[in-house]
Amino acid sequence: MNRPLNDGKGTMALNETILARLRKAAGPNGWLETPQEIEPYILEQRGYYRGACDFVARPASTEAVAAVVSICAQEGIPITPQSGNTGLMGGGVPNGGIVLSLSRLNRVREVDRLNYTMTVEAGCILADIQAAAKDADCLFPLSLGAEGSCQIGGNLSTNAGGVNVLRYGNARDLVLGLEVVLPDGRIWNGLRGLRKDNTGYDLKQLFVGAEGTLGIITAAVLKLFPYPKSKETAMAAAGNLQDILTLFMRIRNCFGETLTAFEFMPRLAIDIVTRHIPDTADPFDEPYPHYALIELSSARADETLRDALETALGAALEDGTILNAVVASSEAQTNGLWRLRETIPEAEKKEGASIKHDVAVPVSKVIEFLDRAATIARSIEPDIRLVSFGHLGDGNIHFNLSQPLGMSAEDYLAHRHEISRQVLDLVVSLGGSFSAEHGIGRQKRKELNLYKSEVEKDLMQSLKHTLDPAGIMNPGKVVNAEE
Ligand code: FAD
User: Fold this and answer.
1) DSSP secondary structure code for residue 34 in this structure
2) Is the CB of 92 inside a 6 Å radius of any atom of ligand 1?
3) Which contiguous run of DSSP H or E holds residue 165?
4) Which among 53, 61, 83 is the best mutation to test ligand 1's pocket, defined by most ligand atoms within 8 Å of the CB?
5) Distance from the CA of 440 to the center of ligand 1, in angstroms?
6) CB–CB of 184/114 below 8 Å?
7) In a designed cystine with 185, which of 69, 153, 277, 426 is the match (CB 3.0 to 4.6 A)?
């Protein structure tokens, strides 16, 4: 039977001898230890979690990461890997021991245009990777709201999604090789840039989405794609969600892989964004119940793409599937349409308290999920306001529920557990996922325990024990039962 995992609590403060060894291993300028220096590393950026640690290691090479981890392995010191600290599940917040920040491991080691790969260190900021790819006339397609500060090690460790999943997949689909420091301090060099490699277990995928519980990703070989030479963005409006879904099927059939994003949002999202976010405007003169944001992109300088999109939308208008549509005619207009979508979370925050669910169901169950989940929410709080939006093409819905007008945030949030439990029960009953994009971290351990099968949980625990028998890697996250 597996023994209980280290939960990172109750670890003693590090003594001066160990601290001296850690400083030496982390290298010059490679550590922080005053409370002021440590503060940003123990605080989740939105302030939802505050942790504790005695030492922040900031090594600048894989060898230095390995040297620090070896000491922690010998001494049983918990390690919390941290990249940009933008994760939303509290996974990067330490429960004691040390934080191992990857920020100084930030070199692009190689861009191989012929192999269509780039080799980057884990602390490279996502936007810098996109820019380095663009400099080589290539595309690294992972794109999400936090791209200016999140780092690729964190993106891989959370298997981040974002707006281009429909065409290019999640972070998991974009990686060909990894370099990992294992919990005993050994370095696994799996930096292979191969599209074909059937030589046993696909070890790299164990570390993708593991949220730092199995080892520390120090570098990765990423896939590159042709940089799009043409791009078209449109907003369509419809009277009901079924019509938005019909439009999605048609556009997908028509454009295949050229369809890069298909996002949906309700009228209330447009209302709150235009109310709270500067430089945003209603896309149409009159309001409609539902909207879809569509993006097509092609590696060819394809002047016919716009015509083809206008034709497809024109046909949908003619047969009444949609009620209005606009194709952006300038970069400013394109940015304006995307701004409406991307600032929904910020606008929600300004609108008041929200009860949020980052869930996925098969695309064929989206309508059923949204109908039944709305009924559940309204049966508990009749005046609840639905702001369900997201990546419709992936079946990934941010099923967010805004505070009723006139109700206090406190009274509203008192319903949180009741609503969320019933919504997540529904998601799981429809074959869906209770955490589509953001992982488990600290926040979703209870749900993992509740919704994963015993077999799945046992396999996860076995893997954890095999790779990290002392339980020093990011204790209290993902596989640990809730505190
Ligand atoms: P961190 O927050 O530092 O770490 C995340 C987890 O990974 C932690 O458990 C940490 O211990 C572990 N970890 C970090 N680095 C390593 C490493 N090198 N080796 C092993 N473990 C490591 N997510 C989406 O999927 N799609 C979105 O569209 C999206 N939009 C977002 C928008 C905003 C504004 C914000 C704030 C977040 C968004 N996210 C989204 C959340 C997303 O998961 C994170 O932004 C990002 O992927 C995490 O990267 P990070 O560098 O900040 O990692």
Assistant:
1) S
2) yes
3) helix 165-168
4) 83
5) 11
6) no
7) 69
List the 55-57 sheet strands across, edge first.
31-32, 55-57, 98-101, 79-82
Ligand 1 touching residue 85 (CB < 6 A): yes
Ligand 1 midpoint to CA 143 (Å): 12
CB of 122 within 6 A of ligand 1: the answer is: yes
CA separation for the pair 327, 125 (Å, rounded) = 32
Contact 138, 227 (CB under 8 A): yes
- What number does the ligand 1 atom closest to the CA of 151 have? 51
* 205/120 Cα distance (integer angstroms): 17
The single-letter code of the amino acid at 96 is: G
What's the pLDDT tens digit per position in 222-253?
999 999 999 999 999 999 999 999 999 999 99
In this structure, what token pair is assigned to residue 86?
A: 């933008």
Measured between its terminal Cα atoms, the distance across the chain in Å is 21
What is the atom index within ligand 1 of the atom nearest the CA of 46?
A: 36
pTM: 0.94
Cβ-contact 69, 79 below 8 angstroms:
yes
Which residue, chain included where needed, has tokens 């971290």? 441
Question: 26, 59 in Cβ contact below 8 A?
Answer: yes
Residues 6+ positions from 181 with CB-CB distance below 8 Å: 62, 65, 66, 69, 187, 188, 215, 216, 218
User: Could you read off the pLDDT of 42-93 as tens digits, one per residue?
Assistant: 998 888 889 999 899 999 999 999 999 999 999 999 999 999 999 999 999 9
Q: What pLDDT is recorded for position 47?
A: 80
Residue 481: band (very low, low, confident or very high) from pLDDT cuts 50, 70, 90: low
Distance in angstroms (rounded) separating the CA atoms of residues 352 and 447: 25
Distance CA 185, CA 303 (A): 54
